[in-house]
Design brief:
Blueprint (H helix, E strand, L loop, with lengths): L3 E4 L2 E4 L10 H5 L2 E9 L2 E3 L1 H14 L8 H14 L5 E8 L17 E8 L4 H6 L1 E7 L14 H12 L4 E5 L4 E5 L3 E5 L5 E3 L10 H13 L3 E3 L2 E2 H5 L3 E6 L3 E8 L2 E2 L7 H13 L2 E3 L7
Parallel strand pairs: 7-8, 7-15, 11-12
Antiparallel strand pairs: 1-2, 1-6, 3-4, 3-5, 4-17, 5-6, 8-9, 9-13, 10-11, 10-14, 14-15, 15-16
The structure holds 4'-deoxy-4'-aminopyridoxal-5'-phosphate.
Length: 291
Amino acid sequence: MSRIAYVNGQYELHADAFVHVEDRGYQFADAVYEVCEIRNGLIVDETGHMDRLGRSLSELEIVNPMSRQAFGLVLREVVRRNLVKDGIVYIQVSRGVSPRNHAFPPAGVRPSVVLTAKHMKPKNAAAQKGGKAVTVPENRWERVDIKTVGLLSNCIAKEKATQEGAYEAWYVTDDGMVTEGSSSNAWIVTKDGVLVTRQATGGILKGITRGVVLRMCKQMGQRFEERAFSLEEAFEAREAFVTSATSIVMPIVQIDDRVIGNGHPGNTSIELRKAFHSHAELVPLHQPWQI
Ligand code: PMP
């Protein structure tokens, strides 16, 4: 079966789906994106992801080209046409196509909208073993709270992780504080059983998965703190894990050459992963056989 992409109002064969060479997303990374998990034919946390897409666009003064309802329809259609039951849907909006010039184009240039969907199996096997994190210096710009496609630093960080057989790279600031992963939020569980993740007031992307896990903590009476934590503190932690729409909760059992806890996924991470989807927003997609 051929993959289908949505590009500016058309459903096209994925292999033939293109944007213009002067798209500002291509030339300047002047674009934002979202990734939502599709799990068992349900869309996970659509509201949170669409809220954040709206925020990213408005922070960059890109006019939102489509209503929430229209995005919802296209998203479902892309998932349906690609027969995705477990996987992800990717949404990207750039400022549009305009002759190359750093300053924003004149009003009236239409943002480019691309949606794709693909199969991806839940990473349960990896989660049972847990993964390693390598550390990289925090070298990104200050607006990492905006989910832009300007991910070159993140790509270099992930490449380092991949080359070292690690699952993720954790950014660490000059003063030794962990910010987040290259594509995930970073968490530890202290020796006293308190969950800690950096506050989302700067320095990180405010993950939707992170938000669900914080809500779970409140509902489950699990103690947590939103504050910066150091790499040293992480080395001494009982558990560490990362959260993202594609990883859900992924235990981290080693950071650089330091084993975390007993080197196996901890109970808290395992429990959070198991319970996650019963706390997330799950909205049915039309199943292919229902259309
Ligand atoms: N931080 C970064 C840098 C990311 O790329 C991601 C994944 N999009 C996250 C955190 C986690 O965000 P979410 O839980 O919304 O997927």
